[in-house]
Fold adenine/guanine permease AZG2.
Amino acid sequence: MGGGLCPRLSSSWENKETALNDAVSKTKVGKYFMLDARKSTFTKELRAGTATFLTMAYIITVNATILADSGGTCSAADCSAPVNQTAGPECMLKPNEGYQRCLDKTKSDLIVATVLSAMIGSFAMGILANLPFGLAPGMGPNAFVAYNLVGFHGSGPISYKTAMAIVLLEGCAFFIVSALGLREKLARIIPKPIRLACAAGIGLFIAFVGLQVHQGMGLVGPDQSTLVTMTACSSTNPATGECISGKMRSPTFWLGSVGLLITCYGLMKEIKGSMIYGILFVTLVSWIRGTAVTYFPQTLIGDTKYKYFKKVVGFHKIHSTAGAISFTNLNTSDAWLALATLFYVDMLGTTGTLYTMAEVGGFVDGKGSFEGQYTAFLVDAGSTIVGSTLGVTTTATYVESSAGIREGRQNRIDCCDCRLIFSGIIVFYAALNERASVGYRAIAGDSWGDDDEGGEGYRLGEHEGGGAGFHHHDSNAANLLCSKWDCGWHWIVRCSELV
């Protein structure tokens, strides 16, 4: 039979792939992206861009949920009130149908805003800076704005529109500093061993967070005696994450573990697209209803998500967050302190991440510089300006870019691939499941994540639970969250440690 069916199919596929890569490399697109010069191929770049997108796709819902916790542009005027009565400010902190409808619309706006800012930033980084880095609204600054500045449902000292004005000013200041070359000089004074240690330090930190309850696989949870302990429980306290019962019996943990093992095995065997296969496996399994690991449990929330999922295609126009900027109440001590905090975090955090990814990709030379860094700094800062006009917080380079780098990407076409996928998410978002990237974050994820304890509604984005697992209707939710994460200072300490 000539050697069997599988070898013939494999050989046929490889021949077609080679023919496609050769054809693309000879086109204007291939020459523009210098595929041959960089010893890369079209299919390799597509795999790399897809891997980057899949590992950072969780930010789409998580960022929107965190910022929606601030209430956005919603106010007491949106609350439902009895006939011949007027709703007071307290309606925003209690269950209210009208206010909840406004929050749902705001969250939809923020989802689109997150996708657009990530799409524009990633596309600009690939085309202008020729670097394989993905950009999106960063985790940390969004929580600082939502819970410290604006406060839970607008209970803080600064309004949402003023907060976006602060982010806009911070982005402009950051752009000026980058344009003057000061950011590049700051990065150069960091010794090379420290820069190399950044990659290892960030990686260990992210791996730890990727294993935690509320942010990752749920293997690590809080303990009053030892601070942290092994959990992976079937039932946890939604507010603290402490184990209630069923240690090491969490179905979602074991599903995530299988996805993680698939990815690790692929990396060990150097299988092409191994970063993608584990994520796809977890995603497909999570879509099946009637299981302990389903993303669509037989609950009101699960039914709502499944109904939206079945739509597959949809489009939402930004109504409330785009251009929601006000400079009226900017001249206050709280506003200036927030501006200084965000600028400090952006200056050190995103600069450190950029250099870390450059080190991982092997782009940094002996002098501590990398090709396209000046433009990369400008794109990074400019993306924050664009994001603020859409209604989201600081846009930054993502550590998840290392997924694509690991897949072998070397130039900018993969960022365009990542950008095209983000653009597709605007209409196909209903079919996404951010849970799937949790396993990867245990390898090289992000500083925040998501939680889904068996579909019980205690993950970011559910009406019964939110704010990293805290009850929405708990009046102390914002304070509890800040005490757990130290909000913006969590990032400030982290960035200080990098330098």
